[in-house]
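Methods, example record. To illustrate the input and output format used throughout this study, we show the complete record for DUF5133 domain-containing protein. The sequence lines were provided to the predictor; the line carrying structure tokens was produced by it.
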Amino acid sequence: MLMAHPAVLRNLIAQYETLRALHAEEGTEAVRQRMNDVAYTLCVSTGTRDVDTALVAARYQLPGARPEDDSVLTA
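The corresponding predicted structure is encoded as:
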């Protein structure tokens, strides 16, 4: 399986989290559609089928991830 570059994964995670917050606040169709698009891209990029699993997989692939507890270290 191809692996997405960590910078791409970081960007997708940030976009999804921002859009999720916007959708909770505004709930517009445009925000929902963009959030779904980013979720789909995250799933394709991580080889998963749902966004929650994709987020965990993406974070796990980032530098600093600790496999024993699935967390990401920040510098």
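Annotations derived from this record:
DSSP finds three helices and two strands in the chain.
Residues 1-30+46-75 form one domain.
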